[in-house]
Write a structure and sequence with these properties.
It is a single chain. The chain has 159 residues and is mainly beta. The chain contains 2 helices and 8 strands. 4% of the residues are buried.
């Protein structure tokens, strides 16, 4: 699942046009649904993909010279309790690599999960694919899951 948009000129090359907005509604067979707002990334150069109309591919460089850098932090709060039969889906995408063959892997992630008492549990994990899509935070360490899921987000509470 990827959502992206580029403005192209008459040659098909990316062109600076920092006025795009949008969203996408998704619904999964699992019952999860969301309205995903577009994340706007500003083009810094007028022709961020170059000016050669004969090239078949272009490099989109999110390096603060061609485009602004991509966000690298995710924050979520008020996650509903699994004790109330809720399920939250987390999706992380790595936007890097050669999309004509394969994308780059996410690599290491580090996170904090807070219970309803604001006690933090940290974790680190290596993701060997370009997308992580999991429900109810299965990626948090085993010592958190060794407690019942409802004990760190009890029914009728969020964390």
């Amino acid at each position: 699942m990827h959502y992206g948009c580029l403005q192209e000129d008459q040659t098909g090359l990316p062109r600076a046009f920092n006025c795009l907005i949008g969203d996408e509604y998704v619904k999964f067979t699992s019952g999860h649904a969301a309205n995903l707002g577009a994340e706007a990334i500003q083009s810094v150069m007028m022709f961020p993909g170059g000016v050669d109309p004969n090239q078949l591919t272009v490099d989109l460089k999110f390096d603060d010279m061609f485009y602004n850098r991509l966000p690298r932090v995710v924050a979520a709060d008020n996650i509903p309790s699994v004790g109330d039969k809720n399920s939250t889906m987390l999706i992380l995408n790595r936007v890097a690599g050669d999309f004509t063959s394969s994308a780059a892997t996410i690599g290491n992630i580090t996170g904090l999960v807070y219970d309803d008492q604001e006690i933090a549990y940290s974790y680190t994990r290596s993701i060997g694919s370009c997308q992580l899509r999991e429900c109810s935070f299965k990626h948090v360490p085993a010592y958190i899951h060794s407690r019942s899921a409802a004990s760190y987000r009890p029914a009728a509470r969020a964390g």
